[in-house]
Structure to design on (725 residues):
């Protein structure tokens, strides 16, 4: 997927004018945020916090031994009869998938949700090679039908209203007109059922990879994951290397925080676990199973001070909590992962120069860290990325100059006081309604305060001496 | 409050870090802090060489500049026993960001950690530091207020009950609830300028909540957020205003101890 994150500001401006989208995003994020609060702390604040810390610990422990656990997972998958493949870049993933497609003479593919496949643009490659690809997560299916992109990692069509989806189904699928959401879902279900029955290959992501057993875990609410992995002849799981956890017990911890944080559920409707292809004694399941471990920039993060970002379990809670995401929606972020985690990993995976505004797309309010089920210090990472932008010379000249002057003024109490008096002298009792240059952003929405006639320090000197 | 295993400030001289914004824009807030602390028998001084804590540069990513300003702060407060600051975000900068800002700086690291450990936000100093929950104050007129929880004070320093406790014990006061009181007002320092439209939309939502709140005055522990919200309220011709909690508390002081 193309990275358009450098256009965050104009894209956010466009988003701000889309009232229908903003209502949809606002309602959905607020609901998810509140539902999370209820179930995360249903056994008390302390219990919920302890669960978060336990989950964070499980992911950090896995990260600290990532190479070993990946090898362990590979060995166990192989022992279970699955084939394990490794891809450094997105192009390599696409190549590996096309190799599998050719080997098994695949003509149609069904997919359950995989954000990694969005990263690498897999659908386009498959379609360009004449393979039919159908997304089967309802949200992803809607996105695909509308030639749109997901704007949230858990609820991909969070930006669309019911009416838009109704019109889309009528237009693209000849759905009999209805306003009833369950009728609409039933209609999509019937369409998708046909696709499942005829597909040659199923592609999934993976929420967790358990190293000690060689298991791909997938959580869904629609059951599509089960169809994708059991009906077609071939199952390909495409997973980022950071999805690894050490033990089944770690999975048990993490599966308590993932649905709670993502959708406010104590558990998802379906939990799927796949160790390998169908055994001779088994009556269903795919004949072939492949696990493709994807790097695509992750090992660079692993080697950096941002390694903790790899512990993200993609719950989307930071998006739901973020007042910036709530305001702009996800498309403005310009790539696969929006919101606070997107503002951190988009520049890390694509280069800081390709996502310069994102580290600044935050008021640093801290809500993301507060809700993160694995306690990733997102505000600190945003601050560090801002510092990197500055150190790498990717900051606009007027801010460099402005903050150099600010620093000079604040290193001298005398200059500081002169500056204050000057500001008072210039702005007087009636500060200008419009500020000049880069500061005009302030006066677009807010009046500027009056500087005091006498500063606190002047008054202190007069009343108390030095 | 959460991380406080710190040395008690009881009986110590308190140095006021008034903050750059209070110094230039809201000196009355600075005096309110002084008046209340002196009313409590606390000895207050004002180190004259103070300027800014460095937060604007630090949050923008300009760390070398922020470090130079922070060193000015450390020099200005080198003799402080306890530092009080009427701002949760400046308090956060000094307590939580200085240690990382000076992590690789052997000259200033330990001093930055010491200064951080003696710094208290205003309501935190009174309630958690001095252990005072009831200031025995009375407003001259009945009034209702609501709180906006400024982000850094709430989520980094863990402050939320402190201000409510102090105000709740003032006579003639009723406390209302502001919807989404813990949601950011959209300020975020240079964010409000660099991402002005997004920030403005966040502010708009805050203003809608303020306008539909029964209280006329919204209280806040951070003058930067206050400036932001008041700038928007004024622009939108709202009669509501945000005030710093210290000012309202100071209005409840017995007359003779007022400046």
């Amino acid at each position: 997927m193309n990275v358009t994150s450098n256009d965050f500001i104009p894209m956010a401006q466009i988003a701000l004018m889309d009232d229908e989208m903003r209502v949809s995003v606002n309602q959905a994020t607020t609901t998810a945020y509140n539902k999370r609060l209820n179930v995360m702390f249903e056994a008390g604040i302390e219990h919920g916090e302890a669960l978060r810390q336990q989950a964070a610990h499980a992911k950090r422990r896995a990260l600290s031994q990532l190479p070993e656990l990946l090898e362990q997972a590979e060995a166990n998958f192989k022992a279970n009869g699955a084939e394990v493949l490794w891809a450094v870049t997105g192009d390599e993933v696409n190549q590996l998938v096309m190799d599998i497609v050719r080997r098994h003479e695949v003509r149609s593919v069904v997919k359950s949700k995989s954000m990694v496949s969005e990263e690498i643009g897999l659908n386009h490659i498959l379609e360009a090679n004449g393979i039919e690809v159908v997304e089967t997560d309802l949200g992803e299916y809607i996105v695909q039908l509308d030639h749109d992109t997901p704007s949230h990692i858990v609820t991909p069509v969070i930006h669309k209203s019911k009416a838009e989806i109704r019109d889309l189904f009528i237009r693209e699928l000849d759905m009999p007109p209805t306003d009833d959401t369950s009728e609409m879902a039933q209609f999509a279900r019937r369409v998708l059922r046909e696709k499942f029955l005829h597909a040659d290959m199923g592609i999934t992501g993976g929420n967790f990879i358990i190293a000690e057993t060689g298991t791909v875990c997938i959580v869904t609410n629609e059951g599509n994951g089960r169809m994708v992995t059991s009906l077609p002849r071939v199952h390909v799981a495409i997973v980022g290397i950071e999805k690894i956890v050490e033990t089944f017990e770690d999975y048990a911890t993490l599966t308590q925080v993932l649905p709670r944080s993502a959708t406010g559920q104590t558990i998802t409707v379906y939990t799927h676990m796949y160790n390998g292809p169908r055994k001779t004694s088994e009556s269903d399941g795919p004949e072939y199973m492949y696990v493709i471990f994807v790097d695509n920039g992750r090992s660079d993060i692993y080697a950096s001070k941002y390694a903790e970002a790899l512990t993200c379990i993609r719950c989307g809670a930071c998006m739901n909590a973020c007042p910036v995401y709530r305001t702009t929606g996800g498309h403005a972020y310009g790539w696969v992962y929006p919101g606070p985690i997107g503002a951190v990993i988009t520049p890390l995976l694509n280069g800081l120069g390709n996502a310069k505004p994102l580290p600044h797309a935050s008021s640093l309010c801290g809500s993301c860290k507060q809700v993160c089920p694995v306690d990733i210090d997102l505000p600190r990472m945003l601050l560090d990325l801002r510092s990197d932008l500055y150190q790498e010379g990717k900051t606009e000249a007027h801010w460099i100059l402005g903050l150099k002057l600010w620093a000079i003024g604040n290193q001298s109490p005398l200059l500081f006081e002169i500056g204050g008096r000057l500001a008072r002298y210039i702005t007087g009792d009636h500060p200008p309604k419009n500020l000049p240059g880069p500061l005009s952003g302030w006066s677009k929405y807010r009046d500027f305060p009056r500087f005091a006639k006498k500063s606190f320090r002047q008054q202190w000197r007069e009343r108390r001496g030095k | 409050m959460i991380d406080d295993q710190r040395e008690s400030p009881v009986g110590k001289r308190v140095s006021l870090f008034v903050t750059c914004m209070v110094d230039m824009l809201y000196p009355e807030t600075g005096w309110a802090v002084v008046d209340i602390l002196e009313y409590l028998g606390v000895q207050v001084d004002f180190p004259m060489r103070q300027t800014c804590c460095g937060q604007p540069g630090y949050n923008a990513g300009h760390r070398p500049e922020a470090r130079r300003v922070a060193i000015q702060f450390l020099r200005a407060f080198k003799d402080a026993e306890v530092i009080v600051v009427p701002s949760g975000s400046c308090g956060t900068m000094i307590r939580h960001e200085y240690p990382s800002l000076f992590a690789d700086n052997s000259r200033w690291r330990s001093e930055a950690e010491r200064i951080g450990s003696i710094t208290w936000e205003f309501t935190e100093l009174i309630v958690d530091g001095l252990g005072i929950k009831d200031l025995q104050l009375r407003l001259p007129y009945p009034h209702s207020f609501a709180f906006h929880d400024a982000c850094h004070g709430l989520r980094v320093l863990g402050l939320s009950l402190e201000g409510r406790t102090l105000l709740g014990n003032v006579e003639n006061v009723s406390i209302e609830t502001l919807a989404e009181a813990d949601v950011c007002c959209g300020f975020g320092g240079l964010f409000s300028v660099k991402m002005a439209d997004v920030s403005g939309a966040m502010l708009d939502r805050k203003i809608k909540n303020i306008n539909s709140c029964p209280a006329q005055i919204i209280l806040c522990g951070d003058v930067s957020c206050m400036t932001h919200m008041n700038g928007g309220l004024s622009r939108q011709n709202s009669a509501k205003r945000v005030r710093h909690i210290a000012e309202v508390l100071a209005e409840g002081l017995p007359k003779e101890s007022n400046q």
Notes: The two ends of chain A are 62 Å apart (CA to CA). The first helix of chain A runs from residue 8 to 16.
